Amino acid sequence: MAANVLRRHIGVPGLVVHYLTSVLGVGLLVIPVLAWTTAGPLSLLAWGILIVYSYPFALVFAKLSTLHPTSKGVAQFVEVAFGRRAGRIAALYLLMTLLAANPVLGLIAGRYLLAALAPGASNRASLAAGALVILGCVALNLLGLTVSGRVQLAVLVVVVGVLCAVIVLALPQGSTSNLGPFAPHGWPALGDCLLICFFGFIGWENAAPIAEEVRDPARTFPRGILCAVGVVGALYFAMALTVALTVPADQSTQEQLTGFTRLLRLATGADHSTLGYLVAAVLLVLTTNAWCLGTSRVVFALAREGIVPRGLSRISPRTRTPSRAVLALVPGYSLTLGLLAATDSNESVLIKASSAAYLLVFLLAFLSAMRLIRSGPMRWTNYLVTAVTVLMLPFMGVSVGYAAAMFAAAVLVEAWLSRRERARERNGPRGARARDAAAHLPPHTARDTAPPHHHPPHDRRKR
Question: Which tens digit of pLDDT belongs to each residue from 18-48?
């Protein structure tokens, strides 16, 4: 096996676990309450729309991953569709987005852990706890996909089992009187609610970077995505309905974050806040681990092409894991964590700044699919998700500015890389030999570098 080629060993169960752990998290614990307080019963319509939308959304990514199963993910789709330079810009932009936004998951997990173990801890203490969660996920990824995948599966089964039990026990405690009036804040609130709920569906694209490790992608991806979308959709709508029937609409920001603990209290008849915080933290740790996996594969793919240092493409012979790419996440995430700590800000800043950035990543993939998928029902499916994605962009507000700034930075970095490559080509082996020869010439010969004048034959005869 080549030194920098990943092993294909992920089947349908492993892909489903990766999908679920990439998507489930804040979308199951925080967003249902936040959406409910934003739009009331109208939020159920928003959930229904996005659950239906998520299947073609995920299906387009699965189809692209089947056609181009490499660790570059979205960047590979853009390169095949629009050329090498466009692909490199997309790769740099994707990497910036992942490094800037991924810490959100670990930071929220750390905040839940501190809420369970040390209530009242400061924001910087929560940031430190989140940093430890991220470091733990990096360490788990160093053990290899086989080990981390088994841990993910075992913990996911337990956590989802607890969530299902809470929903089943809390739902009968609710009242249908909560469902009227249907649009208490007006129908325009549906737009804001769609944007909030959309954050819960970020993660379907995280399977693209592991496509190089999926066994028989043409068979595995369609089956895996069908199962994963069904499970996610059912869990999301069941949780949203439970919240709608049991939670008052006038929740404070803190109560929005602890909505799951309220459901747990309804389900058990006792205050189990600590247990609720721990369940939430564990689920978010799973999501953080899945995103560390996907991001490390993007780093690995870019290193293999020389966009980032090539040494990061080294694969551990023992675990068959790109261990250096995994370790590169530590300094990559440190910049974001350091800025938050220096300004004493929390992860909500990252959520607001990164929502449009992710949406632009999706749009790049869908525009690429227009060139790569030219026939069949998938072509029209892609038209649908592209149109919906474009319609969402104007609602992102100031987040669009952050996304534009990152995209401009990616363009500038790619231009610098291109200039450096052209300079290396000009100063290649031949140029180096010419410089070495010139270095040994006498000083006066530097003026005689022009080619000698050749006299025509009739001049020689005259002489």
Answer: 888 888 877 787 788 888 888 889 999 999 9
Pick the closest to residue 18 from 279, 314, 297 (CA basis).
Answer: 297
Residue that is written with structure tokens 């325009």 in the block: 188
Strand partners, 214: 10
| Helix extents (H) in 171-257 | 189-198, 217-246, 253-257
Residue owning tokens 């974050």: 257
Per DSSP, which regions of 80-161 are E strands?
none
The percent of residues in the chain predicted with pLDDT above 90, rounded, is: 18
Q: How far apart are CA 191 and CA 78, in angstroms?
A: 29
Contact assessment for residue 336 and residue 103, using Cβ atoms and an 8 Å cutoff: yes
Two structure tokens written together for 310: 């090539």
Q: What is the pLDDT of residues 109-139, one digit of tens each?
A: 888 888 888 887 888 898 899 999 999 999 9
C-alpha 297/C-alpha 189 separation (Å) is 38
Token duo for residue 62: 């699965």
Angle in degrees, CA 365, 369, 374, rounded to 5? 175
Strand partners, 10: 214
- Kindly report the length of the chain: 463
Instruction: Note the pTM of the prediction, 2 decimals.
Output: 0.79
> Dihedral, CA atoms, 168, 173, 176, 181, nearest 10 degrees?
-110
pLDDT value for 352: 67
3-state secondary structure of 10: strand
**Coil, strand, or helix at residue 317?**
coil
Tell me how far apart the alpha carbons of residues 323 and 4 are, in angstroms, rounded to a whole number: 11
Q: For residue 280, how many other CB atoms are within 10 A of its CB?
A: 30
Distances 227 to 9, 23, 358, 448 between C-alpha atoms, Å: 19, 13, 24, 75
- pLDDT-derived band at 3, boundaries 50, 70, 90: low
Q: In angstroms, rounded to a whole number, what is the distance separating the alpha carbons of residues 211 and 335?
A: 28
